[in-house]
Amino acid sequence: MTTYEAIIGLEVHAQLKTASKMFCGCATSFGNPPNSNICPVCMAHPGTLPTVNKRAIEMAIKAGLAVGSNIQEKSIFARKNYFYPDLSKGYQISQYEFPLCLGGAIALSTKTVSIIRIHLEEDAGKLTHDLGHPDKSHVDFNRCGAPLIEIVSGPDMRTPEEAGEYLRKLRTLLVYLDVCEGNMQEGNLRCDANVSIRPLGEEKFGTRTEMKNLNSFRAVERSIAHEIGRQTQMIQEGKKIIQETRLWDEQAGVTKPMRGKEEAHDYRYFPDPDLLPLIVEKSWIENVRSTLPELPDAKQKRFVTDYGIPEYDAEVLTAEKELAHYYEACIAVHASPKMISNWMMTELLRELKNENISITKCKITPEQLATLVKLIDEGTISGKIAKDVFAEMYRSGKDPTKIIEEKGLKLVSDTGELESIIERVLANNTKQVEQYRSGKTAVFGFLVGQVMKETKGQANPNVVNDLLKRKLA
Which of 12, 263, 38, 270 is nearest to 148 (CA)? Predict the structure, then answer.
């Protein structure tokens, strides 16, 4: 039986984090009333002329430099001609033959995915379908003209998981660069997936289909998995794959035909006569390069080298820029890298995930978490008590020292007080004492437990162990 492999490429549309649109001064803010962020320019009224947003160009250059693209000295804006109700002009200003960025790559855990190009373009509006009136749809042009970069990968991915990893790494990078919010739910990061299959070992590509406007990592992975299965089944049944654009139905878990897949010539690209060629001088590129932050992969390696934490910990802690900042802010207060990493990755991230909120919304400050870990390291509280303190910190945002003081949770370390408790425990458990002294040392844990029970878990375990061993000697 023939074995098939998938060929997957992604086209990612990232809305740039500018205050105004690509070719006019309208705001790009999300959530405003429909059709309130529009003007004669983005609505293509006769006699209006576009002006290029310089900040958008700088952000596009920044993204290109971060993935290793060659920034082109000359690029040209072109008109992409098609009709759709959400396109006010009847064409979209994009880049075709002469994009701003060429080449580049994103390194995954098992391979490197090439980037063919990054080009600038403007967004279209948004259609909302009226469920009460199936024959009606509403158009919101607020998004029309918002600045986008389209990042086109090479056909280098072979599995849905690789596509998901690529998209996650790309999103993380764009957020680190502060050029895109990366919020897929709000539509400022969208993905089209191109999928074809071919017999394993064959060089020639199969007929591809494209899934449009996938707005979550889950949707990308599931739609690709379904499409691979659908195409494989069709070929095995002797049917022909049609080159087309398909929609992903999240509820049904299937892709559905949308329209025939257009070729470039269908859009009749030509240079926009209202816009001059974009000239990017080397000095401008170098100025943008000087603003590049530490990128996620470099930060991950530094966390492993400087803090001695495992690679997995570093990968998790650098996946979000704010999470990495939080971690380093904790270490600045108390230098216990692995212990802080453990608390963040288990207790803190679990609670954030349960509430579906980001680290920026967390009530516990880095200083408070670092203080909690410091109190454990100093023997002021036990790890068990610390979990109760943490739960209260997460609920109220209170300082750990205040919670410990209010609830009387500080460990008992006074040797005189503990000695009297230990003597009482030994007197009440003479059988276990004899067993220990006859070589059955496993009962030591039982005796420690009895002391902890007497102190309601507030005895310092290190002091208890030391005193108990001396008493039993």
Answer: 12
